[in-house]
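Good morning C.,

I know you're traveling, so I'll keep this short. The sequence:
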Amino acid sequence: MDVDLKHIKDRIIAGLHDLEARQLAAVESVVRNMHRKIEFRPGDARDLVGEAFRDEMSLFLVVHHALHERALNKENFEYVFKQCLIASGDPTATLNPNQKQAKFDVAGGGQRWSLKTESGDSMSRNTVKVEKLTEALWIRSSPTAEDCARNVREKVTPRLLDYDRIVVLRALRKGGMITYSLEEIPWSSLHAALMDDTRAEIFSKGVRGGKEAKSFGADYLKKGTQTRLFRMLLDTSVEKVRIWYALDECLHHGYWTLPASTPTNVSELSKSEAVELPAQRDPRPEETCQEELPF
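The C-alpha cells, ready to paste straight into the viewer:
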C-alpha cells in the first residue's frame, strides 16, 4: 500500500495548532518515544507472533510507555491483542461484546482467546500466575474437600469451553527497562488435568505458623510424574479461582524489551535539552533481562 508521507506530516502539523501545553507535551512524549529502539526476541512457538503481530505490539507498547509508567493492564491488553490479530490478517477480530454469555476476551484468527496480565516485583521465575481463572461465588459455601472437588468439576471445568486459548502478558521491570513476555497456558493440558485429576484427595488447607489457612488449594501433577503442572487456589477472600502454572510448560511466543519511560512534564519543555531525542539504548546482551527468561 502506497502511503503519502508528506500528506500525513502536513495533517499532523495542522493538528498541532491551538493545542494546549499539556496536550502538546503528550504529543511530544509520544514522538520522542517513537525514536526509541525496541528489542524483540522470538519464543519457541511461532504460530501466533508473525512479523505483523510483532510490529503492531511493538508500536502499542512504545506509545503506552510514552504516556504511562505502569505496565499494560488487562483491559488495554485486550484491545492491543485484537489490533495485533487485525494486523496479522484478520480484519474481523473483535472484543467480546457480552462476557455474561461467554467468558472469552477476544475472537480472531479462528480462535476465542482468554487474555490475562501479570506484573510486579514478586513475579516468579518458575510459574505464570493467573489471578482470576474464573469468579467463584460458591467457594465460601464449600467447607469440605469434597465440596471443592465437586464444584471445580461442575463449575470451573465447563468454563474452559468458552474459549480456545489462554495467553498471559507478563511484564518484568529491571532498572530503566521493561520486558514483556507473551506466554500461553496450553488449554488442552489444563482442561485434561481438571477433567481427569479433580478429586477430593488433592484438596487441602495449608498450615503456616501453626495456623490453618482459610482457603483450599490443590496441586495438579504432570501426567505420570510427581512434577507439579499447576497449583489451584480457591481464594475465599475474593471468591476467585487462581492458578500458578509451570512456566516451562507454557508456550513462549516472544519477548519485547523497551525503556520504561515516563511522560514528559510540561515544565521540561522550557529547557532546550529536554526536547532532544534520547540516546539509543546500548544493545549489549549483558544489559538485557535474559536471566529472567526461561531460555
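Safe travels,
E.
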